[in-house]
Amino acid sequence: MLSIKNLRVSIDGKEILKGINLEVRPGEVHAIMGPNGTGKSTLASVIAGRDIFEIEEGEILYKGKNLLEMAVEDRASEGIFLGFQYPVEIPGVSITNFMRTAVNEQRKYHGLDPMPANEFLAKMEEKKRMLDIHAKLANRSVNEGFSGGEKKKNEIFQMAMLEPSLAILDETDSGLDIDALKVVAGGVNKLRRPDNAFLVITHYQRLLEYIVPDIVHVLFDGRIVRSGGKELAMELEEKGYEWIRSEA
Ligand code: ADP
Ligand code: MG
Ligand code: MG
């Protein structure tokens, strides 16, 4: 699904990612943990294609294709989903219309006609039921006046509608309240399939009590300094990041 080899990335001449290696296979959930400022969001942004970064070295293969040569606007159509750490508000655009546009853009890319209205609405209903989302939320403008929990619900709803192959969820460093945490985790658990994969980025171990990852990586100062099973998240929670810092 995703193969990152010796990825070195800088911004304004400052090296942020210092040789990342990562292999994600279909069906896997990987967690990336690490202290603040170590490059977690940078990694997510580079995969999604934000172009403020300079790729100094390395490669990213996504489904065997050279991702770094793939146009940014095509990456979503190719099945990459990035949940925003700070979701934008789009006043005047309902979630329903926003989602219809997103779904149809993706279909167009694959040479398909727009989804018939009844089919689209049925799909919305199915996903709403699955994620336990209120009908009212879908009629509101995207993120306008949403609580943190509602923004997360909307994000997971978008993910459910777009059915990505690779979903990257970058959580805020301040942490989510318990309701939002359960929305995110419940969504991921319901959407897990043998043919998709998740990269869950989190500063805290708490989220991983609800989403049980297959593999946990610790990112420290631009490098993955340790990888292991879900017990590694527990170990980090107990010993804190100072333990990693002293080892690194
Ligand atoms: P994390 O998500 O692990 O907290 P980030 O990827 O956000 O870390 O940041 C890693 C480093 O890159 C930090 O030192 C941060 O200051 C720097 N950085 C991130 N984005 C920018 C930017 N747009 N301009 C300058 N420096 C940045
Ligand atoms: Mg940060
Ligand atoms: Mg971050």
Automatic annotation (TrEMBL):
GO terms for molecular function: ATP binding; ATP hydrolysis activity. InterPro entries: AAA+_ATPase (IPR003593), ABC_transporter-like_ATP-bd (IPR003439), FeS-cluster_ATPase_SufC (IPR010230), P-loop_NTPase (IPR027417). Transmembrane segments: none annotated. Residues 2-246 form the ABC transporter domain. Belongs to the ABC transporter superfamily. Ycf16 family. CDD domains: ABC_FeS_Assembly. It comes from Lentimicrobium saccharophilum. This is FeS assembly ATPase SufC. Keywords: ATP-binding, Nucleotide-binding. PANTHER family: ABC TRANSPORTER I FAMILY MEMBER 6, CHLOROPLASTIC.
